[in-house]
Amino acid sequence: MNFEKNYYWDFILIGAGLWNSIIAWYLKQYNPKLNVLLLELSSSVKNHIWSFHQNDISSSQYMLIKPLITYSWPSYQVKFPKFNRKIFSGYYSICSKHLNSYLIRALGINNFLFNNKTVEIITPTSIRINNKKIINANCIIDGRGLKNSQFDGIYQIFLGQQWNLSSPHGLDIPIIMDATVNQKNDEYHFIYTLPLTPNSLMIEDTRYTKKPFLKIDMLKKSIKDYAIKNRWKLKNIEREEIGSIPIALKNEKIIKFKKIICVGLRANLLHATTGYSLPIAIQLAENIAKYSITTNQINSTVLFKLVKKFIINHQKKQRFFCMLNRLFFLSNSRCHLDIMQYFYTLPDKIIRNFYANKLSFFDKIRIFSGKPPISLFQALYAFLNL
Ligand SMILES: Cc1cc2nc3c(=O)[nH]c(=O)nc-3n(C[C@H](O)[C@H](O)[C@H](O)COP(=O)(O)OP(=O)(O)OC[C@H]3O[C@@H](n4cnc5c(N)ncnc54)[C@H](O)[C@@H]3O)c2cc1C
Known about the structure:
The structure is a single chain. Helices cover 33% and strands 27% of the residues. The chain is an alpha/beta fold. It has three domains: 9-72 and 92-147 and 255-316, FAD/NAD(P)-binding domain (3-Layer(bba) Sandwich), CATH 3.50.50.60; 154-247, 2-Layer Sandwich (Alpha-Beta Plaits); 318-384, no CATH class. The strands form three sheets. Strands 1, 2, 8, 9, 10, 11 and 17 form a seven-stranded mixed sheet that branches. Helix 1 (18-30) packs parallel to helix 3, helix 5 packs antiparallel against helix 6 and helix 6 (300-330) packs antiparallel against helix 10. The longest helix has 31 residues, at 300-330. The protein starts with 8 loop residues before the first strand and ends with a helix. Bound molecules: flavin-adenine dinucleotide. Flavin-adenine dinucleotide binds at residues 14-20, 39-42, 46, 50-52, 116, 119, 143-145, 158, 160, 241, 243, 245, 264-266, 270, 275-278. This is Lycopene cyclase CrtY. Keywords: Membrane, Plasmid, Transmembrane, Transmembrane helix. InterPro entries: CrtY, FAD/NAD-bd_sf, Lycopene_cyclase_b/e. Pfam families: Lycopene_cycl.
């Protein structure tokens, strides 16, 4: 196996999560000759679904990742106590199993390896495996996910369950936010539902909360109650996923990553309010892949600078979202629903730009115009707490 010989790699990607998978795909699409090694800690493919909005990415980016898209819908809806709204913008989901089957074909089965429990990054161009063997590459990319110590903020906590139903559910487009469910103090609660097939649904209980953990039984019950309310006849669970995403209240300082290229959650690369990161991963993957075709030999120092610049730009864009997070979470918890409900009365274009990280100055003004759902004092507090 190439991996065991003294082989020189163009790229070694550590962690086969969302980000490195997208980067690996882009690298091989732009330059099939590149030697790319993808190393994953776990022993098998994890079962995730990652979604994004049509307007989050360009049409050329869409064409490149189209084979990876497992489910797509022409529009989606949101539900609040005062109204339901359908938003005419495509919504897409990528399943990790589907993604990995494409990656194995693109990389070659020997270049996508699981069960790597002892990978140690030594320099920007070398790793150590099994405490002894050193493997070199032109460039190492660290995509090992969130480091616990990195974060101080609030959490978006999910329990997602994929259910088979004994009769069709009748839902034809996703409900990405149903906030008609019970709201508790100090959290914002909604249910997210993807109609995968006529007889299967992905139902996710989602909460923005100050607590890093929630009782799983409570989340399970909430999903069951929601299914009963919608008269969905749940038969058996296909898969279950629990997780949390850090939601920053302040713009994090640039992480010192000692010249090692970090991506994804390792580098705080996510939309600070929604927690989505797939479109950002696609953008960075495109930048890295474009760089890779401009040179005969990948240079990790050049690439480090490229990624660092990307992270700094991303963090600048997140200042506004962090301020919104403060407005949201420092405000009285009774206001959470009012704020979200108000947001979804805004024009489609602003909602699309919000998710896509592309708010213009005028979009930002528009978000704050109209009757404020929170008091002036609370707003001032959030602004000054930059
Ligand atoms: C339930 C849930 C639903 C979500 N839905 C969406 C969504 O719809 N859209 C969206 O954009 N985002 C979504 N997110 C957020 C998204 O999952 C993260 O932003 C994304 O996974 C971050 O990607 P990553 O590659 O940085 O980390 P991860 O995807 O967490 O991948 C890190 C990988 O590194 C591996 N690893 C760790 N240590 C090592 C090691 N020492 N050696 C080798 N490998 C290692 C891990 O096993 C893992 O596979 C969701 C998150 C959750 C929890």
